[in-house]
Amino acid sequence: MDEIKTLTDFQYDALKEVGNIGMGQASTSLSKMMNQPVNISLPYLKLVPLLQLPQLVKNQNPVVGIIQELNGDERGFLLLLLSKESAKHMIKLMLGSAGETDAFDEMEESVLNEMSNIMNGTYISALSNFLGISIGLSIPFQVYDMSDAIVNQIIGLMMHQVNYVLLLKTEFKISSEKIDGAVLIFTDSMSLSIMLDAINRLLGR
C-alpha cells in the first residue's frame, strides 16, 4: 500500500464540505442547548505527519481532551482539544457558572461530553453519509493533561499504527465571543485509505 502524504485538492474540498455540513448541524443543536446563537467553523484542515502534531497543538498549559473511539469501517480515535479557559467558558455559557479551579466537577464533565457528542457526532454522521461508509463513535471520556501527553496516550491505544492525523482547527462563535479548539482524527493507514478511496470514487476514480 502506498504511503499517503498529502490530500489532493478534491479530497481536501470534500472533507471541508463535509465538515461544514456537520458543523452546521452541530451549531443548530448547540444553539438550542445554550439558548443563544452558536456558529462553528473550520478555518483549517490538513493531513499532518504524526511527528509534526505535538508542535501544531502545543499549549503552555494543560488542556482538556475529549476522546471517542471510531468503529465500523474506520478504526481509530477522535480527539477534541480545548484549553482549560475555553472549556470553562463553554461551561459557563451553558450552565450560567463554572468552577474557578483547574479541576472539572461531574456536572462540568457531563456538559463537555454532551458538547463533544453533538459536535463530533454530527461531523462523523455527515462523513459517513457523504462517503457511504459505516462509522460509529464510542461514548466520550476526558483527559486533563498537556497536549502532547494526550496525543501520546492515543498513540499508545493504537499501538503506534498511525502515521498521519487529520487536523481540523475549529472556531466557535457564541454571540460576539470566539473560542478556538481542534478536532484530531487518528486512524491507521488502512482506515485512512478506505476514507480517501471513498472520496475518490465520488470523482469516478
TrEMBL record:
Residues 12-41 form the CheC-like protein domain. InterPro entries: CheC, CheC-like_sf, CheX-like_dom, CheZ_family_phosphatases. Keywords: Chemotaxis, Hydrolase. It comes from the Archaea. The keyword Repeat does not apply. GO terms for molecular function: hydrolase activity. GO terms for biological process: chemotaxis. Signal peptide: none annotated. Pfam families: CheC, CheX. Residues 65-143 form the Chemotaxis phosphatase CheX-like domain. This is Chemotaxis protein CheC, inhibitor of MCP methylation.
